[in-house]
Specification:
By secondary structure, this protein is an alpha/beta fold. It is built from 10 helices and 9 strands. Bound molecules: guanosine-5'-diphosphate (GDP) and magnesium ion (MG). InterPro entries: G_SEPTIN_dom, P-loop_NTPase, Septin, Small_GTP-bd.
Amino acid sequence: PPLLSPDSDRLKVEESERTEGGVLRGPDLLGYVGIEAVLDQMRRKTMKAGFEFNIMVVGQSGLGKSTLVNTLFKSKVSRKSCSPNYEEKISKTVQLQSVSHVIEEKGVRMKLTVIDTPGFGDQINNDRCWEPVLKHVNEQYEKYLKEELRVNRQRKIPDTRVHCCIYFLPASGHWLRPIDVEFMKRLGKIVSIVPVIAKADTLTLEERTEFKQRIRQDLVANGIQVYPQKENDEDAEERLLNNTIRESIPFAVVGTDREHQVNGHRVLGRKTKWGIVEVENVAHCEFANLRDLLIRSHLEDLKQVTHDVHYETYRVQRLTAGAVHQGAESNKKLPK
Ligand SMILES: Nc1nc2c(ncn2[C@@H]2O[C@H](COP(=O)(O)OP(=O)(O)O)[C@@H](O)[C@H]2O)c(=O)[nH]1
Ligand SMILES: [Mg+2]
């Protein structure tokens, strides 16, 4: 029997003619349909399921990586290395460590994984120290791809892909060092990199402005891609918002694990002999800008870019390479 009766076929054509090129908005409709309720449905589903966010921190030890991540999420999600034990100190290789926590706020659950890279850039010869990081990022793509390709696959594939890589630049520098260039050049192609200036409380305001400008120039000069990338802007509105971010990176940040009293309020800050650096005060440093970018405005976008751009690139490369490989294999088996 035909799947569609001639009648319903005609109906379909008429409908598509009527709506072609046009948007039917509220006032055009005969009454309230209730499409907007989909937002509530999405909200409820997301709240029930929770979501994953995987963040990686890269930079030499002592730059305040663990402290900053803890400051970002206002909890001890990463272990501070105040007194590195002997073994850690002599570690000759970059060792990646993942720690996961579930953070819940107002009923929304986020499974946060922090991937730390102790040992990065700590050796005298830092040749190819980007390699273990690159390997880790690609391994997570591979894991996801393998799950996706399985016949009986899970309804929701566990996501271990790195959604964001915060790269810590030491505040002492005047320009990007070779290790920074080498790392960001390679990793920028496969993961969203957000460069930050670590321990920015050690710079004067002029030094900070100069250093930031210099880094932006160096990034362009070396063809390094950092997040948010221009070609991934989805519309004019997003472009405008992202332009302001692109003009102000790298954020000069300060981290802390202490609260102090300032004018009767408890604030996160670092106490020095000459005063308190307030971490969340935009007049003091750009920590708030970083937090807003990573969590309040671009968290979902970071996840989307990871899936739609970085993972997609990996998937296409991997599957075309696989197809070529298989083709070659089957060619060999062909009878001559
Ligand atoms: N001046 C200053 N010191 C910081 C800052 N963030 C962390 N520190 C200190 O730097 C040391 C190393 O911090 P840690 O987070 O363990 O660095 P990591 O090795 O990169 O994870 C600790 O003594 C921190 O208190 C900062 O923004 N400014
Ligand atoms: Mg650490």
